[in-house]
Amino acid sequence: MTPRELHLEGALTAEQLRRTGAFLLEHQDDSGAIPWWRGGQLDPWDHVEAAMGLAVLGHADAAAAAYRWSARTQATDGSWPMEQRDGVVTEAASDTNQCAYLATGLWHHHLVTGSSALLRELWPAVDRAVGFVLRQQLPGGEIAWAVSADRRPDTFALRTGSASTLHSIVCALEIAAHLGHARPQWERSAARLHEALVERPESFADRSRYSMDWYYPVLGGALRSDAALGLLAEQWDTFVWPGQGARCVSDRPWVTAAESSELVMALDAVGRTDDARRLLCDIQQMRDDATGGYWTGYVVDDDAVWPEEQTTWTAAAVVLAVDAVTGTTGGSGIFRDYAWVEDDRADDAAS
To answer: InterPro entries from the xrefs (predicted)?
Structure first.
């Protein structure tokens, strides 16, 4: 049986998405690294996001090369630098959320391909990365957002980063269970992190003008059911611009393709499928059919793209959103199906 090709009826053809796959491949280095664009900066989170997009579009070997690059370049403490260019570190601090995301990418690769080989091969990298991240857990359960270049953890946490980290830990626990590794300490740390996200939102630095801080507790799986629906409804009018997309920040007339795509996946995760599809169709105005890529953002009042860049992670986010709402690949439920609150993990962690 021939697998279905990714497409979004009425908005994106399979051929257009094949071009997006070519766009991503064009920007991947021979080493497997995927910078924002060829010769541009690379961070470990966006690199993984781009690899996930490649896997969805049928380029599993290229995605595996990206994950192997991550494993080869991982520091002994389990981290990666926050930014590098052409292999030269330009920001030596480490973002905890960025380091955790390898687990999400690898579990997604397994779901898309059905193969466990890469999980087995790169398990040591996942184990080290999660260990590094959880060593930065603060007394209240939240995760310090970064570790400085001289390896001092920061004293504050970000809601977006901690929510994404919770999802990555859930994916890491799936990998561990699949491979037969017990990690009860990860369960306990995730339970504490979940509690901080749900019960103590004041524990996190105020980034409320950013749309990510609004929807990430849903996307990262900390909230589901009525609590998630209530949160999304609460600031819908603040961040969603009908016919345009989702704002990056509440006080600017600027919609962005990646944040809009992540919101699509959050909506899909709680069953708001019609809203998800509508929003995904709206942001096709940011597509460049000539390249297959997507402009990072669009300033509505000025009728202008800004910044004038097409990033790999933006294209990948759109691809992941299309997969989520169409259910095309085995990885389409990576953000829908792997939520802490749905798996009785909290009970397991307490036992």
So the answer is: 6-hairpin_glycosidase_sf, 6hp_glycosidase-like_sf
